[in-house]
Amino acid sequence: MGQIASNICGGDGRPVIKNDVTLTIKNVPTEPIAGQAPGTSGLRKKTKVFMEGNYLANYVQSVFNTLIEENVPVQGGTLVVSGDGRYWNPEAIQIIIKIAFANGVGRIWCGTDGLLSTPATSAVIRARGYGFEPFGGFICSASHNPGGINDDFGIKYNCENGGPAPEKLTSKMLEWTGKIKEYKSVEGLPNLDLSKPAIYKLGDKIVEVFDCVEDHLKLLKQCFDFNSIKRLMARPDFTIVYDSMSGVQGPYARRIIEQELGAKPGSCTNADPKPDFGGPSSAWHGHADPNLTYAVELVATMGLNKEGQKISSSKPIPSFGAAADGDADRNMILSSQFFISPSDSLAMIVDNADLIPQFRAGLKGCARSMPTSGAVDLVAKAKGIECFEVPTGWKFFGNLMDSGTQYFPDKPQYTPFICGEESFGTGADHVREKDGIWAVLAWLQILAKKTEQAGKLVSVEDVANQHWKTYGRNYYARYDYEGVDKAKAEDMMKMMSGKSGQLVGKSYGNMKIKINDVFEYNDPVDGSVSKNQGVRFIFEDGSRIIFRLSGTGVAGATVRLYLEKYTPPTGNLGMHQFDVVKPLADVALQLSNLKSYTGRDKPTVIT
Ligand code: G16
């Protein structure tokens, strides 16, 4: 950078780099850009769209206009700005910093190399503290969507509680994008080296760069008993592979799983973050999306094919496997030749919460998104814990976790709290985002304690078998039809919504429809209503067929079809989930007429 007046230590080992620059605020005229509505999780578009003209600046300024209107303490405040390392992250971060300073922000916090995973951002906003508590943060990420100049970019604003902005704020942001006339920026900001921890004093503004792992690690150490996980790792019969799929999880995985917990070096694979998450030449074609289809490398290492069926392997199969997505909020959990569905994983973590120190005071609440299987409901009922069903989108869990705190002091408290989604998201109230490495540690903690109790290695498969014998099994699968014509997909949804309630009592094979409706959520904490959250067909035997359109894609539409069939403990628990739900899929195709609407006769991804 420009002139370094002095280079002294910041007290915590970081150099303080002073630069007496004068940052001049400029008002840049702009015009509204259509289509800046955030989806399920932030604004996601093709990278080239974000790179064009004022696209990013308009959105960021619209966020600031909203925050200022809402009396958020932006003036002199602290803001976190980082991302998942995807293509154009460094440039976007510089643009955001300039707009933030021009709008009055006093201090910016960045992870090293501009990296912070989504859960780590939440941890930093909530827990880094020391007198400069941030009012919020920007996460530059399109999560599991591929990165690269020809792929996707995204941005999301998280609030002071560390969670995604609620719908009432994002709608105001959207309103601003429709009437914006200018954005503010500063001139004279030197190019900052974000590669090492440092404190930059730039006139009266400060940019602090800190190790991207430290805050998240500190928080996770409060949640888990690292020593007992270390003992599991040290067992000669335990091996682990954690695939970061070239996303942002790499530095976290290496530091926590290998260095802190003692897994063998090399246990963390694809652990160098890449701007294209490995791109077309990677086995997963840059889709850093941990599921059976995309996490092909890990799935094969664990002795499975993409249908989750056992395959032979010439190499020893690790006892535990996990994968993360681009921004490291998602997780997939496997054991040797065994895949656990995210819905089951959630239920089993809730069932074994007493083995996790974070919940030593006793779990008070849990929740799942609507399409997630009802496996967790059965556990919650047996244990007398409150269980909520919310729409798809992590933001809907936030209010439940904040209920009974300073945000909603008159409402009941549901924390300690665990929640999760079928879309490979699991987490708890230590942060306000789903947390991939938290889920991995939760499983390792459960296995470590059960192994200690049993005196022999207990696997994910052992826990699952025991669980199903107790609660029965919610056989589950999701079919995705990606890249279909948006208008046609919307017509199909409209047709099904239009029949709401009319199919009750109708039989399909040996199943009779009990409920057919469009899911609507009445938030018990802030009273807000979210309509149109998916078409549901619920049968008398408890089987469910759910249809929704994905809200995270950037082109066309993705139809998601969720299928669930419950088998009691006395039934056949050892079948393959895809075979069990197949007859339900046939009924779903009949109910939706999907083939004639979309022209598709098979899904792109089944997981
Ligand atoms: C986001 C949300 C999740 C949601 C998922 C799937 O995940 O944070 O809560 O379940 O999208 O959404 P859709 O079905 O609309 O594509 P992520 O990992 O992409 O941030």
TrEMBL record:
GO term, biological process aspect, one: carbohydrate metabolic process
Annotated Alpha-D-phosphohexomutase alpha/beta/alpha domain residues: 36-182, 216-334, 364-458
Keywords: Isomerase, Magnesium, Metal-binding, Phosphoprotein
Enzymatic reactions: alpha-D-glucose 1-phosphate = alpha-D-glucose 6-phosphate
Cofactor: Mg(2+)
The keyword Isomerase is annotated on this UniProt entry: yes
Name of the top EC class for this enzyme: isomerase
Alphabetized GO MF terms: metal ion binding; phosphoglucomutase activity
Keyword Isomerase among record annotations: yes
EC number(s) given by UniProt: 5.4.2.2
Record-linked NCBIfam families: PRK07564.1-1
PANTHER family to which the protein is assigned, alphabetical: PHOSPHOGLUCOMUTASE (PTHR22573:SF2), PHOSPHOHEXOMUTASE FAMILY MEMBER (PTHR22573)
Entry's family note: Belongs to the phosphohexose mutase family.
Protein's UniProt name: phosphoglucomutase (alpha-D-glucose-1,6-bisphosphate-dependent)
Organism: Symbiodinium pilosum
Lineage: Eukaryota, Sar, Alveolata, Dinophyceae, Suessiales
